[in-house]
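Notes from the 1:1 (GR / supervisor)

We went over the backlog. Supervisor wanted to see one worked example end to end before approving the batch request, so GR pasted a single chain during the call. The sequence is below; no edits were made to it. Supervisor asked that the structure be written out right there so they could see what the output format looks like.
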Amino acid sequence: MSKIHWSLLKFEELSLSDCYALLQLRSAIFVVEQQCVYLDMDNKDQQAWHLLGKINGQLVAYTRLLPAGLAYDHCSISRVVTAATHRRTGAGKLLMAESILSCEKLFGKGPIEIGAQLYLEKFYQSFGFNRAGEIYLEDGIEHIHMIRTA
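Structure output shown during the call:
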């Protein structure tokens, strides 16, 4: 796998091309691939930081980093997505490691919360996240609330 180039940008710093690419990637995975009809644009993007991972200018990995109080009591990582073409290459692991480091840089070393799809629980546990509640349905998909303590 080629080296991933990371960019951490506020919403207003995103180029139109980057904004289109991240919305297209999120839609391709969360709406089309997972066959889940929902409104991805939830008015949190404007207050979020956006971590984009590109290879040769193509967006292959992305997360949205939210400050405390926007989705959870603590800062959070959401919209975790790796392009289908780059799965099983280690890109997802690099994405989560970079997301955690970025949260710590932006918001300080404290708890990080996520709403994880249940089938990815072990993946997130490998980064220190622990289940913090019961299974719940979000847009017809089983999720769990998870927290990573500092």
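Supervisor's comment: The mean pLDDT is 95.
Batch request approved.
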